Amino acid sequence: KTTGRNKAEPFEPAMHATAVKRFDLEADLRRAIAKGGELELFYQPIIDIQNDRMHGYEALLRWRHPTRGLVSPIDFIPLAEDTGLIVEIGRRCILEAARQIAAWTPPGGGMPPQVAVNVSGRQFAAEGLLDDIENALRITEIPPGSLKLEVTESLVMDNPERTVDLLKRIMAIGCKVSIDDFGTGYSSLSHLHRFPFNTLKIDRSFIVRMADSREGFEIVRVIASMAKVLERDVVAEGVEEQNQVTALRDMGVEFVQGYVFSKPLPAAEATAFLEKWRQKERD
Ligand code: C2E
Ligand code: CA
Ligand code: CA
Ligand code: CA
Asked: Which of these, 63, 59, 265, lies nearest to 147 by C-alpha position?
C-alpha cells in the first residue's frame, strides 16, 4: 500500500536541489548588492496614444549575473522579498531612477519624462520609504512629479489604512502614485475612490481578453470609464498589437505600455528612444 512517506521520498532529492539553488541565488544576490553594478534598471516606454507623444517609462529591474546571464525579476524579486534584501534594492532603484530622470531633463528647464518605479510590499511596510524618496529628490533636484511610485492593487488591499496614509504622504511631496496590476486583486470598484492615486494600470490579462469576447472588451471599457469618472489616468499594460492600440484609443484610454511600442530597454537605448520621439514631436 502506498503511504504518504513512500510517495514523498522520490521528491526529496529534488527538494534538496531546489533549496541549494535558492541558497546559491541568495548568496549571489547578497554579493551582488555588496559589490554593486550587477543590478540594473531597464526602462519600458509608455506612450500617450491620444496625442501620439512619449509620456514616460516604467523602470524594471534586471540582474546581470556573472555566470547565469540576465536574470528575470520574476526569479529574484520573490527571493529578495523573503530575505528582506528588497528594501536595500528598492532604495537603490529609487535613487537610480531619479538620477536617470535628471539625465533626461532637457537643458533649459523642459519637463523630463515621468518614470514609474515599482515598490514591493516589504519595502512599503518597512520604515524609511518616504526618507528614501525625499533623499533621491534632494540629491537629484528632479521635479517631484516626474517620479512615480507603483504599488500593486493587492498590496493596497492588504493594509488599506496604512497604505492610504503612506500614499497620501508620497503625494504630498509631489510624487505620483499608480496602482499596478489593477483587476487582479479583490478591491471593489466602489472603494477605489477612497484611495489616493493618480494612475490605474489595467493588467495585461484584461488586455489579452479584450479581443476574445464582447464581455472581455466591455470589462476594459468599464475600468477605463470608471477611472475617468474618478479623474485618474489609465495605462493599459502588456499591449502587443496595433489593433489593441486602436481599440484602446477609441475607448478613450490615454496611455499604453507594451511590446507594440517597445520592450524594456537598457538606459542608453531608452535614451535613444526618447530622443527619437522628441525629434518626431518637434517635426
Ligand atoms: P509588472 O510590474 O507588472 O511589470 C510588467 C511586466 O510585463 C514586465 O515584466 C514587462 O517586461 C512585461 N511586459 C511589458 N510589456 C509586455 C507585453 O507587451 N507583453 C508581455 N507579455 N509582457 C510585457 P518584467 O520586467 O519581467 O517584470 C516582472 C515583474 O517583476 C514586474 O511586473 C514587477 O512585479 C517585478 N519587478 C520588476 N522590477 C521591479 C523592481 O524594481 N522592484 C520591484 N519591487 N518589483 C519589480
Ligand atoms: Ca509595475
Ligand atoms: Ca503590472
Ligand atoms: Ca505584474
From this structure: 59
Tell me the torsion sign for CA atoms 83, 84, 89, 93.
positive
> If you measure from the C-alpha of residue 108 to the centroid of ligand 4, how many angstroms do you get, rounded to a whole number?
37
pLDDT at 8: 45
Q: Are 225 and 202 in contact (CB under 8 A)?
A: no
CA atoms of 39 and 70, how far apart (whole Å): 10
- Residue owning the nearest CA to atom 11 of ligand 1: 264
CA geometry: angle 40, 156, 130, nearest 5 deg: 55
Point out the ligand 1 atom lying closest to the alpha carbon of residue 120. Answer: 44
Provide the H-helix boundaries in 36-179.
73-83, 85-104, 121-125, 129-140, 153-158, 160-173
Assigned C-alpha cell, 153: 492593487
Interval between CA 123 and ligand 2 midpoint (Å): 14
Is the C-beta atom of 258 inside 6 A of ligand 1? yes
- Which atom of ligand 1 lies at the shortest distance from residue 119's CA? 44
Q: What is the dihedral of CA 180, 257, 190, 122, to 10 degrees?
A: 0
Q: What is the mean pLDDT of residues 62-73?
A: 93
140 lines ligand 1 (CB under 6 A): no
259 lines ligand 1 (CB under 6 A): yes
Q: Is 89 in the pocket of ligand 1 (CB under 6 A)?
A: no
Examine the predicted complex and report whether its ipTM is higher than 0.95. Answer: yes
Q: What is the pLDDT of residues 12-54, one digit of tens each?
A: 666 666 666 666 889 999 999 999 999 999 999 999 999 999 9
Residues 6+ apart with CB under 8 A from 63: 29, 32, 38, 39, 40, 70, 71, 73, 76
pTM here? 0.92
Alpha carbon of 118 to ligand 1 centroid (Å): 9
Q: What would the grid cell of residue 150 be?
A: 507603483
Q: Is 96 in the pocket of ligand 1 (CB under 6 A)?
A: no
